[in-house]
């Protein structure tokens, strides 16, 4: 462009035109206006002007006519930066679009767009805590990026549940939410937590144990459960009662899926088991059902439940412990469940009839691995009868628990034999206290008889000076058998009465005999032998040597009788 301006100025000088041209900044429009003025006042002919200013076709125009070039690229030549806006707009080769609205109309006329947050919910959680003037929970904030949020025993305030629920609404990371022993007794807290499950998040395991939800809070909590598929739902120890559990059953009827449903210690009665059985009959999805620590005294509820579970094709674990069950024949339905792996009936009121029914149906359940019957009022014979079924190969049970059930001495011995069988090597059997687990030493009845004889005659012996043991020892010197009738008369003479049963026992124990008249005698040699064993110091006084006979008197001498002298 600068070269074009210089050639134009030289041509104007040759033509004699006097035009005042600014050397620094020249506009093509100014040049054209100046040339027109000078030409009109000049005497030069038109032929010279035509020769000097014959227009040349521009290369860009050629390309533009061919569709190979488009003006208005947006790049400005450095020489034309200082050119006025009006001149630039009228320039032949440049076209600049008008300036667009930078956002003033949108800011003034339209409402402010809501702020978009990441799906993990971390930024949203902090913003909501700031809005509610609450301190954020660091464990929860960090857990939004993991698969588990563990807030057990954290003491979360019910007012903080709204921020947590909204943060979890779009989260795709958290799969396990554990809120054990927190305060969800506020209705708003249960409502906001329930609204979380109306969104598409990844929570599969929800643990709300001991949160004091009660009947009023369970309804807004489970309102969207019919759209979810839970691996675990723990609602234990929440005082739901029969009225509260109806809302959970309603969600089951609407299509909710709970692979593991735990309803422990919720003050449930047999009245809620019938609607639960009806729901399971049409929606058989529960694999683990825990109804322990409830009150099922009335038999109609468990009966209905067991009959429905008999047809189940998915349930693997059933916990009915601590429920005051008193059934017997209805228990056979549980052993017809083909998929059942673990059955817990411990701490109930099952009777001996129940034990017999269970024992007779153990071989039917081929898939049952663990059977817990602990702390039931079974007798030792019931426990032994249950154990006897473990000798059968068709019984596939691997673990039999009989804790806190008293057993007899034969139970451990039989168990030892059973565990030595080749198909019972990995079997586990537990039991309670072993009754009479001791062996009495074999007492010699002869020792007891001798001690009783001494004890009976001891008091009288100190008065009359008669020692029965010395009497027997003395008697044995001359006799081999002791006449019991004569012995009794001798004792009576010394104010000691022996009972007939005692004399009969002496006769039987000490190899007694009878004479022709029927009088009974005891072997004195055996009696003396036991006296020497028990009282080795008891001996007869030494017998004095026999007194020698007095010497015979001297013989009288024979002689003459001396007469008296007269």
TrEMBL record:
Residues 555-566 have a biased composition (Basic residues). Residues 537-566 are annotated as: Disordered. It comes from the Eukaryota. Residues 541-554 have a biased composition (Pro residues). InterPro entries: Leu-rich_rpt (IPR001611), LRR-containing (IPR052394), LRR_dom_sf (IPR032675). Pfam families: LRR_6 (PF13516). This is Leucine-rich repeat-containing protein 74B-like. It comes from Spodoptera frugiperda (Fall armyworm). The gene is LOC118282428.
């Amino acid at each position: 462009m600068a070269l074009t301006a210089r050639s134009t100025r030289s041509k104007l000088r040759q033509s004699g035109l006097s035009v005042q041209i600014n050397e620094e900044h020249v506009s093509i429009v100014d040049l054209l206006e100046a040339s027109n003025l000078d030409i009109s006042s000049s005497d030069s002919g038109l032929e010279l002007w035509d020769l000097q200013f014959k227009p040349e076709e521009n290369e860009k125009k050629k390309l533009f006519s061919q569709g190979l070039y488009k003006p208005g690229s947006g790049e400005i030549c450095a020489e034309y930066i200082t050119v006025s806006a009006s001149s630039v707009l009228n320039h032949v080769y440049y076209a600049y679009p008008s300036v667009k609205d930078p956002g003033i109309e949108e800011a003034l006329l339209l409402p402010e767009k809501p702020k978009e947050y990441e799906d993990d919910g971390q930024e949203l959680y902090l913003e909501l805590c700031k809005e509610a003037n609450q301190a954020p929970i660091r464990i929860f904030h960090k857990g939004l990026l993991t698969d588990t949020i563990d807030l057990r025993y954290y003491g979360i305030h019910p007012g903080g549940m709204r921020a947590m629920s909204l943060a979890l609404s779009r989260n795709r990371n958290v799969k396990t939410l554990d809120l054990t022993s927190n305060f969800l007794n506020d209705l708003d807290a249960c409502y906001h937590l329930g609204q979380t499950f109306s969104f598409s998040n990844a929570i599969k395991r929800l643990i709300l144990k001991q949160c004091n939800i009660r009947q009023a809070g369970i309804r807004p909590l489970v309102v969207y459960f019919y759209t979810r598929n839970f691996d675990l739902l723990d609602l234990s120890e929440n005082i739901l009662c029969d009225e509260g559990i109806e809302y959970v059953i309603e969600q089951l009827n609407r299509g909710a899926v709970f692979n593991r449903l735990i309803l422990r210690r919720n003050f449930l009665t047999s009245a809620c088991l019938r609607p639960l059985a009806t729901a399971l009959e049409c929606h058989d999805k529960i694999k683990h059902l825990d109804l322990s620590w409830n009150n099922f005294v009335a038999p109609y509820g468990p009966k209905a439940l067991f009959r429905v579970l008999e047809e189940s094709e998915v349930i693997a674990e059933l916990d009915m412990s601590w429920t005051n069950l008193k059934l017997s024949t209805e228990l056979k339905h549980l052993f017809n469940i083909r998929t059942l792996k673990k059955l817990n009936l411990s701490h109930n009121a099952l009777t001996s009839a129940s034990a017999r029914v269970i024992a007779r149906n153990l071989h039917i359940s081929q898939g049952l691995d663990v059977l817990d019957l602990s702390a039931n009022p079974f007798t030792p014979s019931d426990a032994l009868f249950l154990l006897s079924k473990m000798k059968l190969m068709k019984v596939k049970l691997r673990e039999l628990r009989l804790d806190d059930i008293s057993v007899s001495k034969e139970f451990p011995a039989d168990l030892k034999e059973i565990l030595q069988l080749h198909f019972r090597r990995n079997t586990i059997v537990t039991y309670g206290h072993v009754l009479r687990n001791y062996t009495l030493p074999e007492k010699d009845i002869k020792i007891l008889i001798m001690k009783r004889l001494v004890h009976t005659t001891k008091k009288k012996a100190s008065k009359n000076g008669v020692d029965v043991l010395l009497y027997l020892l003395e008697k044995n010197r001359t006799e081999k058998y002791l006449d019991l009738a004569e012995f009794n008369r001798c004792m009576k003479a010394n104010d000691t009465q022996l009972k007939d049963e005692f004399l009969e026992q002496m006769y039987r124990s000490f190899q007694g005999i009878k004479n022709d008249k029927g009088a009974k005698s005891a072997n004195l040699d055996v009696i003396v032998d036991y006296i020497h064993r028990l009282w080795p110091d008891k001996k007869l006084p030494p017998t004095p040597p026999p007194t020698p006979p007095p010497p015979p008197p001297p013989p009288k001498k024979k002689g003459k009788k001396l007469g008296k002298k007269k």
